[in-house]
Amino acid sequence: MTATLRRRTLLGASLATLPVLALAACGEVTVEGGGETAAQLTIVDDQDREVVLPGPAQRAVVINSYANEFVRAIGAGDRVVGVDRTSLDRLPYLGLAEDQVVAEGLDQLNYEAIAGLEPDVVILPRNAVWQEAVEQLGAFDIPVVIATAWDTEVVDATISLLGEVFGVADGAQTVLDFRAEIAGELEQRLADVEPVSVYLETVEPYLTTLPGSGFHAMILAAGGTNVFEDASGGDAQEELTVDPSEVVLRDPQFVLHEFEPSADPVDRFDALREELVARPGWSGIAAVAEGRIGLANGWATSALGKSLGALYLASWLHPAELEGIEPGEYLTRWVTEFQGAELSAPTDYVQGPDA
After folding, report:
1. In which order are the strands placed within the sheet that holds 121-124?
2. Torsion of CA 337, 341, 344, 345, to 10 degrees
3. pLDDT digit string, tens, across residues 278-307
4. CA distances from 312 to 143, 301, 315 (A)
5. Which class for 322: exposed (0-12), middle (13-18), buried (19 or more C-beta within 10 A)?
6. pTM over 0.85
């Protein structure tokens, strides 16, 4: 297999997790009944469960910040009446109050508080205690839909599923089209590039990403290769804390560190860059020696199924091929058009080698 053909194969495989695929994914909807009252909906969620809703949800409890971002993006954010603590902390623009926090974590749901909000549906990711929630909320006749917005491999299906739950298929399609626009640019511009080796670090020092994770797919879609693609033993999200000396030995051509997500800008860039450069042995890494380091607030680069992160990373790895594309403009669109929030400046959230 030639290098070009191998590169196209890798890129196609990675883009399969980032762009829009067919809409007939894990979510399906059946309309039942008719007349003057709202028709019932039978939703098939991402655990292949059939869930009957009285109609498009008008009041929803949504647990998980990525899911709340998608609900806002498709145009149903004003129907969210309850969230988890992380969503409120990361996304202050949700406009919800403290008494609307009904979960301190994915395994700490306050079922009486949820019932008190009288939601039409509760939306949980698959790594929450959803089996327990189904049982507990069944006593209140509140349906539970499983939609896992953080999983890059099912992002498009999740967006479509949420569009069905809220009856806003057009809004969901608009979000899918935006993802497809980004993926199309990457696929076209990076078709023949030589991949650049990348070490990606998430939140904690030496916590990196393995094949099967959304971050790994993001690296491939950006025209890179993961320096730890041959590693194994990761956690449920395919992340692994690696030996510091291994990073030096593998000598990545680019280093990307993504820190904790927050819609409120947090200026950690200078401190993080200094910490990375000062690590023992890192002065011998090509990327560090030549200043090829990217730093990002995860709220920006992990948004939209890591599509924005892939675009930023591609612009750093292959600047000539990405000429004319400004990732900050896409981030601005995501925040202002799809989140209904204000953005101070893209550089308050993402900074690359030229910062």
Report:
1. 108-109, 101-105, 80-84, 60-62, 121-124, 144-146
2. -30
3. 999 999 999 999 999 999 999 999 999 999
4. 39, 8, 5
5. buried
6. yes
d(CA 20, CA 330): 17
Tokens of 57: 């949800």
Element (H, E) at 179: helix 169-189
Q: What is the DSSP string of 46-76?
A: TTS-EEEESSS-SSEEE-SHHHHHHHHHTT-
Are the beta carbons of 82 and 104 closer than 8 angstroms? no
State pLDDT tens for residues 223-260.
999 999 999 888 877 899 999 999 999 999 999 999 99
Task: Identify the residue whose tokens are 């560190």.
Answer: 257
Three-state secondary structure call for residue 295: strand
CA distance 124 to 12: 30
How many residues are given for the chain?
355
Q: Residue 331 and residue 234: Cα distance in Å, rounded? A: 30
